[in-house]
Structure formats: structure tokens, C-alpha cells
Specification:
367 residues
Length: 367
């Protein structure tokens, strides 16, 4: 692989998120969206100064970078943020924006939700803007762009390069881009800023059982999902059905009132290890994010419905959910104190039908 292609690949890996749309800076400094594929040729033209790119966040409201936009050339403003990052041992790069300030880039792996990224970024930003600029990007939207580094500013014709601690251009910017380490933004937020984590999630750092507790205790004490959902969470699936199953599980747990962070943890720590093979963590997070950014939906139990087509039903006669749904429709309840049938080893706690009825008294879209 020649050096040009290596540089393009490195740039793409670090910065490019959406490839179906990008922005191009005009000579007056304004950016205009271009709804074409962002390919190697366009990136190469940016890197040699022929055009200047603006980059958009992922359409699923996740990100692989955090950028603090500092709109002043006063060095002390950037130093304060850099010192905070160094104090918490967070790797980063500082870029001259080409005109009136600096950008500080933090690279995230795996990709995290925009909300997590923005929350973490704001803890260091000292009042400056943080990109991605929105917690959530609408399905038909593109969000706010950020001017890409390592190109020319069209107004000043100055290069937007990474700088050292004395604000001098780095001699080998691409080598530094390869070298800089990533962070797990979720873990940093939990470990370094536990109070902030609790504020944005509504839960302390350990809202889930320890490894000594059975997963079924979590599923029955914290949530009351349908019987088939509980069973599936404890079984996992084979390749070919993992994504379809994941979106159903995430949606059902969301409907139980679980927070997005909770659902991620359930799928990552309880369900995914049982899959053959497990899905990448980043993919799990993307699926969960998708479930939380769609309209209200609950999977019903019709044979032709996607729930029954994807997840094994264990029979209406044994299903607490179906019994309660029938009670809701007819006004009669055959077994008022019926408890959830336990299908997992080590389960110790039952959930009464009355609690389940309260949970499921709302909409059933599929029947």
C-alpha cells in the first residue's frame, strides 16, 4: 500500500463517520452539504488543499470522536482544557482551526452515543462548543458539521494542522494521528465522573447484580419482560439472527422503562456472551441506540409477527404475558396470583401477575 492510500485510510478511520453526505467549504467560508459518496478521491483532494471538507456525525446518533471547538487564539484557553485532559490521562490532539482558534480531538472506541460523548466533552470544554452538537440526530437529518482537520481553510488559505504544546505545527501530523490512543468514553465517564454518570442515566455506577448473582434476578427484579424475552436473554442465538433478535430485545426492555445505558449493559453482559459468535460491542450499542430513537412500538404475539418469527414461543398456556393480555381484553383473570415461570437456572424470585398486568396495560401493536 502506497503512502497516499495509507494516509487516506488513517484519516477515514479517525474522522469519517457518514459517507453518504459531506459538506464542502466555499471561498466565503460557508459550508454546503453535498449528498454524494465521500470516497478516497474527495478525501485526497481535501488533504492536498484542493477543497475543504465538513464532516457529519453518524446517522444513528453515535460517534467515534469528540471535538472541543475553541474560538480564540489565546493560548491559555486551550492550555486549560489540555491540562484537564492530561490530568485525567485522556489522549488527544490539538489542531489549529485555520482562522480564529483551535480544535481539540478525542478519539473514541468503541463508538458511543452522542449524549455520552457530549457529556464527557463538556466536562473539559470550559464553556466552549462540543461536537457532535446534538444528542440525537433525527432519521432524516444530518446534524451539525465540523470542519475537517488536515486541510486548508478556504478564507485564510492556512493549513489546519496539529500543533504541539507550544502551538507549533507538528512535523509529522499523520504519524501522530496513528499514534494517539482512543478512549472508551462510557468507561471514562463512569470511573472518573461517577456523579455525572448518575445524573445522566438516573442510576448509580452499579445498578446491576454482581457476578455472584444470577442474571435472572436482574431480569425479574429490575424488569419484567415477556417470558420469551427472558428466556432469549439467557440463551443467545447463532449467527444470522443476532441483529434481528437484538433489536427486539432492546425495544422490549426499553418498553419496560429501562434506560439506554441499562439495556446496553444487559445485552453486552448477559445476552451477547451467549451468542455464537458474540456481536461486536459497537454493533450492540448501535442497535440499542436505534431502538431508543424510533417511535413507541411493542411486539405482539401473532404467529406471523416478527417476535414469533424470530424468538421461540413456549406456548400460550404457559405464558404469563399472554394470560395477562387476555385478562386485559376480557376483564377476567383465571389465575390472579400467577407468577412468572422461571426458565433459567438459579432464578429465585417470582413476579406476580398483578405487577405484570400493570406493566403491560398499554398498547399492543401486533396483537
Amino acid at each position: 500500500m502506497n503512502r497516499t492510500l495509507r494516509v487516506i485510510n488513517c484519516f477515514s478511520e479517525r474522522f469519517v463517520q457518514r459517507t453518504d453526505v459531506y459538506a464542502r467549504q466555499a471561498e466565503d467560508g460557508k459550508f454546503h452539504p453535498v449528498r454524494k459518496t465521500l470516497g478516497d478521491e474527495v478525501i485526497h483532494r481535501h488533504l492536498i488543499g484542493e477543497l475543504t471538507l465538513g464532516l457529519y456525525p453518524y446517522s444513528n446518533s453515535t460517534t467515534k470522536w469528540i471535538c472541543v471547538d475553541i474560538d480564540t487564539l489565546e493560548p491559555e484557553a486551550t492550555r486549560r482544557i489540555r491540562d484537564k485532559l492530561n490530568e485525567h490521562q485522556i489522549p488527544h490532539l490539538v489542531e489549529f482551526s485555520g482562522k480564529k482558534g483551535f480544535h481539540i480531538w478525542i478519539f473514541v472506541e468503541p463508538a458511543c452515543s452522542n449524549r455520552i460523548a457530549r457529556t464527557l466533552g463538556k466536562l473539559f470544554a470550559d464553556g466552549n462548543e462540543v461536537f457532535p452538537k446534538q444528542d440525537t440526530v433525527t432519521p432524516d437529518g444530518i446534524g451539525n458539521l465540523i470542519k475537517s482537520p488536515l486541510g486548508k481553510h478556504r478564507v485564510t488559505q492556512k493549513w489546519c494542522l496539529f500543533v504541539d504544546e507550544e502551538f507549533n505545527d507538528l512535523e509529522k501530523p499523520y504519524e501522530e494521528l496513528v499514534r494517539v490512543q482512543t478512549i472508551d468514553a462510557t468507561e471514562v465517564l463512569k470511573k472518573e465522573f461517577p456523579n455525572t454518570w448518575k445524573e445522566i442515566t438516573g442510576y448509580p455506577i452499579s445498578p446491576f447484580p454482581t457476578s455472584s448473582q444470577a442474571p435472572s434476578q436482574l431480569l425479574t427484579k429490575t424488569f419484567s419482560p415477556k417470558d420469551c424475552i427472558q428466556h432469549q436473554l439467557l440463551q443467545g442465538v447463532k449467527e444470522g439472527k443476532r441483529n434481528a433478535t437484538a433489536i427486539i430485545l432492546a425495544t422490549e426492555l426499553r418498553n419496560q422503562g429501562a434506560k439506554q445505558i441499562q439495556v446496553e449493559k444487559v445485552l453486552l453482559e448477559i445476552w451477547n456472551p451467549k451468542n455464537q459468535p458474540p456481536l461486536p460491542s459497537a454493533e450492540i450499542r448501535q442497535v440499542v441506540n436505534s431502538a431508543f430513537n424510533t417511535g413507541k412500538f411493542e411486539y405482539g404475539c401473532k404467529p406471523e409477527g416478527s417476535l414469533r418469527q424470530t424468538i421461540q414461543c413456549h406456548g400460550y398456556e404457559n405464558c404469563t404475558y399472554y394470560t395477562l393480555l387476555r385478562t386485559l381484553k376480557t376483564g377476567t383473570q383465571d389465575k390472579p396470583e400467577m407468577t412468572l415461570k422461571k426458565r433459567s437456572e438459579g432464578a429465585t424470585e417470582a413476579v406476580t401477575a398483578s405487577a405484570k398486568l400493570s406493566t403491560h396495560r398499554n398498547t399492543q401493536n401486533e396483537g
